[in-house]
Amino acid sequence: MKRLVLVLALTGGVVPRLAAQGSTQDLLQQASAFYERLDVERALPLLRQVVSPSWPFEVTAAQRVAAYKYLGACLALVGKGDSATLYFRAAIERDPFADLDAAVFTPAQLRLFGEARRLTFAVAVRPVASARIDPRTDRLTFTVVTTHAGLVDLELRPVSSDSALRLFRGVSDGPRDVAWDGLLADRHLAPAGRYELRITGSSQLSRRADSAVIYFEIRHEVAPLEDTLPDLTARDLVPEQFSRSAATRDLLRGLVVAGTALLISNGLASRHLGGSLKPGAAVLAGAAVVTGAVAFAGDRRHPDIPGNIVANAQRRAERAGQNAAIKARNSAKTAATVLLVTPAAGIGP
Predict the structure, then answer these.
(1) Domain annotation covers residue 13
(2) 65 and 98 in contact (C-beta within 8 Å)?
(3) pLDDT classification of 335: cutoffs 50, 70, 90
(4) Is the pLDDT score of 19 beyond 50?
(5) Contact by Cβ (8 Å): 170, 151
(6) Distance of alpha carbon 101 from alpha carbon 187, whole angstroms
(7) What is the residue range of 327's domain?
(8) CB under 8 Å to 159, separation ≥6 — which residues?
């Protein structure tokens, strides 16, 4: 079990995917076996091969850091403290998160590693893992580190904007978790897109400064929104005023009725031996003319149709209520937007 722990610690848990990586991995595993047997003289040449510029195979960042750590550990065992510290510093510079497990390494090795951390100032941000964040209840946690005490600024910004949100400013020593609620400086939900998380720091033990940056993507997960109903048109409503043509029609209708009454009365009078126009017909014709004229004048002076106005107002109120309900449902859906976070490789936009 201890051998397995040492191998995993040495390789950073990285499983080789290429034959070239396998060659480096094989060498690291051999060095681990020699180290476990305290055969430092045989472990050191293998580890030096891994970090040598002439090594012909690919070496991942994690494998290089592991090799530097174990070079330092081997040299510490044989009493070469200064050289051990140099290799520990090389590991820390490449990975500020690098550390030694107190259950595996000796107090002397841990002390030298701590000295290397005090002599080296570096900051880093751990790449984000894919996550589904509900801003109402969840937080996205960023893990940052300083190799020793330093004043740190941690800022988040969309790569398409110069506006940054400061997530943390203060003195930090070692690893620290910083939570983010998914809102930007304007307190609105972070829009979908690519983001930059940058840490800058300055040592409190020296004049050294360092910075690091990672990128990640945000997408929105939101329930489908409803479209509001269109405004009512003239086809959806009834006329609210009399038209001029309607008034004219009323007048013409009265004249037609009057003319018809006179013609009928005149015809009846002719059949009765040339009798004259009946008084009743004249009265009827006059009433029809007056009625048409009154309707014509009334339509022009009072064009509104009260009943239709009320009916249209009711229809408009119903449509406004329907759209208000749709907007309220859409607002609730938008407020429940979930952030889908994924790591992003590369540099810059």
Answers:
(1) yes
(2) yes
(3) confident
(4) no
(5) yes
(6) 41
(7) 238-332
(8) 193, 194, 195, 196, 215, 348, 349
- Per the structure, how many domains does the chain have? 3
**Do residues 95 and 172 both lie within one domain?**
no
pLDDT digit string (tens) for 40-93? Answer: 999 999 999 999 999 999 999 999 999 999 999 999 999 999 999 999 999 999
The total of other beta-carbon atoms located within 10 Å of residue 36's CB is 15
Backbone angles phi, psi at 14, to 5 degrees: -85, 125
Both structure tokens of 111: 């002390």
Nearest C-alpha neighbor of 349 from the set 196, 167, 154, 180 = 196
Q: Which token pair is 33?
A: 């076996």
Angle between helix axes 19-36 and 40-51 (nearest 10 degrees) is: 150
d(C-alpha 121, C-alpha 147), whole Å: 6
The whole model's pTM is what? 0.69
Confirm whether 257 is domain-assigned: yes
